[in-house]
Design brief:
The protein has 94 residues and is mostly helical. It has a domain of 62 residues. The protein is extended. The N and C termini lie far apart (47 Å).
């Protein structure tokens, strides 16, 4: 069981992470606006592409794309390489 100090540290970390969410120049798109299609596969692809594209105004930058690529590498065991300095310029399209 966690001690009081451990719980306090975890709550402080949660508090810091909540305030670390970046501000964006325009509001993020709504899920319905992102979909724009009635076909479910296209909807999922469009939604995924929106959040993986660091040029979109969702506020995550390239963080989700990096996590996706790193997870793909870990799960598949295949080499998934990219240059961290260039990842901000990646455009994801469906």
């Amino acid at each position: 069981m966690a001690t009081s100090d451990q719980l306090t540290d975890r709550l402080r970390e949660l508090h810091r992470s909540l305030y670390a969410v970046p501000e964006v120049s325009e509001p993020p798109k709504s899920i319905l606006r992102i979909f724009g299609s009635t076909r479910s596969e296209q909807q999922r692809n469009t939604l995924l592409a929106y959040f993986l594209d660091p040029t979109q105004p969702h506020g995550f930058g390239a963080d989700l794309l990096k996590a996706f690529l790193d997870t793909a590498h870990q799960e598949s065991g295949m080499a998934v390489e990219y240059y961290h300095r260039d990842i901000q310029t990646v455009r994801v399209e469906t």
